[in-house]
Amino acid sequence: QVQLVESGGGLVQPGGSLRLSCAASGSISSMYVMGWYRQAPGKQRELVSVISSGGGTNYADSVKGRFTISRVNAANTVYLQMNSLKPEDTAVYYCGADPKPLLIVIKGSGMDYWGKGTLVTVSS
Question: What is the spatial distance between Cα 45 and Cα 16, in angstroms, rounded to a whole number?
Answer without folding.
Answer: 23
